[in-house]
Every structure is written in C-alpha cells, then in structure tokens.
Amino acid sequence: ALPITVRTLSETIGMKVGELILKLKNLTNSLFTINSGVEFEVAEMIAIEKKIELVAKKQVTAESSLEATITERKASANQLPRPPIVTIMGHVDHGKTSLLDRIRQQYGLSSDVVSTEAGGITQVLRAWRVEKGGKSTTFLDTPGHEAFTKMRARGANVTDIAVIVVSASDGVMPQTEEAIAHARAADVDIIVAINKVDLPDANIDKTRRQLYQLNLLPDTMGGDVPFVECSAKTGKGIDELLDSVAVLAELAELTADPTQAGSGTCLEAYLEGDRGVIATLLVQNGTLSKGDVVLCGATFGRVRAMYDDLGRPIEEAGPSTPVKFIGLDEVPDADDPFYVVDNIATAREIAGKRRERRSETDRFKFQAVNLDKLKEQN
Ligand code: GTP
Ligand code: MG
C-alpha cells in the first residue's frame, strides 16, 4: 500500500480534494480518487509548494525496535572489567597453535591441539580460555594457510590484541604481512612473537629487521610494539609473552556489562547430523544463558545446550567467553552478530525478514552474472 491517501494528504496540507486530484493528474498523468494512495515523493512535492514538510512516520518493525533496544542497552551499561580477547595470527606453520598449546599446558590445561589437526594445519577458528592468578584471557587461534584470509580478518575484528607469530627460521612471509594488515585495519594492539628461536637456523636479527621495515617498532626504537622471542618447543619466552598481553590488556581498560542480555559475534557454525546446528559464539557483552532466545544474523533459536571451550556443559557465559551452543534453526554466517531477544516470535520475525532480503539480493546477483555472460556471448 502507498504511504498516504489523497484524503489524508488533503487534510495534512490543507488543499481541497478536487484541487489535489487535479494537481496529481497533471503531475503523474493518472486518475486519483479520494481513497487512492499517493507515492511519498509525489506527496512531498505537492506539500513543498505549500511550504509544508512531510515527514514519513517511521514504521515500528520488530527490527527497528530491536535496534532501539540495543542502543538503549549500550547507553545504560554498567561497565565492569572483562578479560582480554587475544588473537594469534601469522603465516602457516609458524607455530601459532603450538604456542597456544604451550600456554594452555603452562596453566594446567591438558592439551595438544596440534597433534589432533588434519595434516597439522589449522582450518578453523578456535577459542580457548586461559586462567592465571584468577585472571582469565580468551585466546583465538586462527589458521595461517593463505586460503583462510577471512578467518584471519574475522579474528582481527573481534579481538583486543593481536599476537603476530613469526618463525625466526623463515622470517616474515606473505601471511605474516597479511595478518599485520588485518590487525592494523581493525586498529588493535599488536604484540610480535618471534617463535622457533630454538632452531639452529633461527635468525632473530634478520626477522626483527624485516618487522621493523613493516613499521612494527619496539620501545627501544621509539615504537610501542612489544617484541617477545620465544619457543613453543622449549617454553622459552612464554611467560614474557603472557606478561606483555597482561600489560596491554591492563592499559586498554576493557569493560563490558555482564548484567545485560548477551550479545557478540558468531565465530563458526556448522550442521552436525541429528544434533543440529552447532555454533561457536563469542560473547562480547552481557551474559548468554541457557534458555535464552538468540537472533544470529538471519537465524534464530533457543539456547538448548551450551558448552565451554573444553566441551563442558555450562548454564551461562559472560563477556569475553567463547561458547558452543545448539539451538539455531539454520547455519548462520561466521561474522554474524548475535543478540539475545525477548521472545521467540520477535526472533522469528526478524530472521524471516532478513532471509527474504538476502534471497532478493541473491537473485539480483544471479541476474547480474547472467547479464555479463550474455554480453560476453555477443
Ligand atoms: P597453521 O595453523 O597451519 O597456520 O600452523 P601453526 O602456525 O598453528 O603452526 P603449528 O603450531 O601447527 O606448528 C607447525 C610446526 O612447527 C609443528 O611441527 C610444530 O611442532 C613446529 N613448531 C612450532 N613451534 C615451534 C618452536 O618453537 N620450535 C620448533 N623447533 N618447532 C616448532
Ligand atoms: Mg595452527
């Protein structure tokens, strides 16, 4: 339906119905009755002649009211300190997962992720929580293989600190530079970890110089990037690395409001047999609880079961916590933001609208491709 009828327009701008219908006929070349709808742009043109500005009343949709709620939540936040989110990035095989395994071992978590990976290559974005002296840190492990650019970008976008891992025997490689670019684009703090210093062919000086050339400078050279020399194999430098993380995190004064409804980002999601959609979410603000209704991109559902990074069932998850959860009706896109909403009907409505919109865009994309093909053929 068109936004305004002839009757309402006539009342709003104080123009006689007959005069208005005549004007409309002249403008649009079509016939109007008192009950016809008028395009907003046309109504606007006529109103302007009368020096009246028409303002379209914003329709209150489930989506716009969710936006309002989110803005409200942000404004009323009762900020408390939260754990830092640290993303490990770098070229393939430079030792990201090994460093994280080391860190987790050092803090009492049995682990050996590298040995469980297919071909020793990380292919998913993984998240771990580590605790030291009552303070926890969330680590995200990203793949270094060149095929996984998106996952590195995603890691950089949700993180507070990026640890750029560079093998001292290889030096700076293409995905090292790419990772640095992602971290810079996301405007996050950077720590350089020069790894594999135990290897006989490690060339720490050369690696350092390559990094300086990329404008990553330690404080001794007037910069502010901590450089740590380490080995995931011997454990050298691991404490120092964690100290650097702690210092940067302290300076950043990271906060969130755990009393609010949970929100954050989907890191990964897939369909698993009869268990349904399994999604890894990073809670960035508020608390996500079992039973909550979640809207995630164009998908929705109730949190039926939720697990921590070690696969243990949990009831709730506060800020900076990665969780796996089951309950979404479809597989969301990684990168999709999620929000806890009041009820399942709202979630269903918004998800449905988003799906409609998405399928429309898909159709246009499809047509565009076909047109190009046609042109090629001619
Ligand atoms: P992707 O996730 O595939 O990008 O690799 P990654 O950066 O996670 O490297 P990963 O931890 O899988 O390590 C690659 C190889 O390097 C493994 O064989 C590790 O055992 C070895 N490695 C990692 N760190 C060190 C180190 O400090 N010293 C030595 N000597 N070997 C290491
Ligand atoms: Mg790895």
TrEMBL record:
Keyword Transmembrane in annotation: no
Key words, A-Z: Cytoplasm, GTP-binding, Initiation factor, Nucleotide-binding, Protein biosynthesis
Gene (UniProt): infB
Organism name: Fimbriiglobus ruber
Coiled-coil residue spans: none
Statement: the UniProt record of this protein carries the keyword Disulfide bond: no
Organism superkingdom: Bacteria
Residue ranges constituting the Tr-type G domain according to the UniProt record: 81-255
Molecular function GO labels: GTP binding; GTPase activity; translation initiation factor activity
Boundaries of the shown chain within the full protein: 585 to 962 of 1177
Predominant location: cytoplasm
Residues bound to GTP: 90-97, 141-145, 195-198
Family listed: Belongs to the TRAFAC class translation factor GTPase superfamily. Classic translation factor GTPase family. IF-2 subfamily.
Protein name: Translation initiation factor IF-2
Role, per record: One of the essential components for the initiation of protein synthesis. Protects formylmethionyl-tRNA from spontaneous hydrolysis and promotes its binding to the 30S ribosomal subunits. Also involved in the hydrolysis of GTP during the formation of the 70S ribosomal complex.
One GO location term (cellular component): cytosol
Record localization: Cytoplasm
